[in-house]
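Hi Q.,

Before the meeting this afternoon, I wanted you to have the flavin-adenine dinucleotide prediction in hand. No need to reply - just skim if you have a minute. The sequence and ligand are here:
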Amino acid sequence: MSTPADLEQEQLILDSVGRFLDREVKPHVHALEHDDIWPEDIVEGMKALGLFGATIGADHGGLGLSASTYAKIVETVSTVWMSLAGIFNSHLIMAATVERFGTPAQKESFLPRFATGELRGGLALTEPDCGTDLQAIRTTARRDGNLDYVINGTKTWISNGIHGQIFALLVKTDPAAEPRHRGMSLFLAEKGPGFTVSKKLEKLGYKGIDSAELVFSDYRVPADRLIGGAEGRGLQQALGGLELGRSTSRRAASGWRGRPSTRRSPTARSARPSASRSASTRRSS
Ligand SMILES: Cc1cc2nc3c(=O)[nH]c(=O)nc-3n(C[C@H](O)[C@H](O)[C@H](O)COP(=O)(O)OP(=O)(O)OC[C@H]3O[C@@H](n4cnc5c(N)ncnc54)[C@H](O)[C@@H]3O)c2cc1C
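Predicted structure with the ligand bound:
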């Protein structure tokens, strides 16, 4: 249960996000959305605020916020421009798959860089022939010796696809497996040879955030990028990460509808919580 101190701390965070929105986003949002411009300066500001590490644990350099506080941030941001929430939320879904299911080495290597926004990305599940029924994906990863997998396939509608550098990529490591999910695995795929952005997808709204088709053509990924280090767990891992996205998408929608913000007058300078922040504004890890 939240104490008055927790709520005070949460309000300080929302206030600083609100001030950022007033100063850095509101004056530009119409032009950026209308012209479908990726908001580079605003992304830099969101990095400085710590939003790319909002739900990542403090032990890995994130803010370690609770789902409840994070959802309020998503709603507050979405009252001004929902696309911004999509940029960091897709990234944090990818981060959640590593934090929840990754090996200790994967957590140590990637989470601090995800938290600062130095390395950003999203989740690559959907394919041209398959969205809801993820077990029908056709992208394959074939093991080549002990060191690498070779990935072939196409992903579409991938948020942050153009400006992100790394994606939690759902593939079939055993296309013949029954049940089908036992043959599915999740990799951390960083852009490199064999991994190309084939096109930007145009949208009627929700612009600013880049949606792209990604093509993998004999793309080699080191075996240590298999999330959790074992094949056959990819679907559960992807769905586990999506838990964060599903709950916050609802808050994004209510923010976008223009629900009144719960903000009070500004008092804090950064979203980064103070050392004295008490436990329940942090999420339980
Ligand atoms: C702006 C945007 C951003 C996106 N970002 C990402 C991203 O970052 N990463 C990613 O992987 N994907 C992303 N997607 C893709 C999104 O996840 C898919 O569009 C979604 O999963 C639905 O897939 P689909 O479009 O193929 O629809 P379909 O799977 O064809 O479904 C169409 C309709 O049929 C219904 N339906 C499907 N199967 C059944 C069934 N068996 N029984 C009853 N009803 C059924 C569905 O509920 C839906 O209403 C994004 C899409 C958009 C538009």
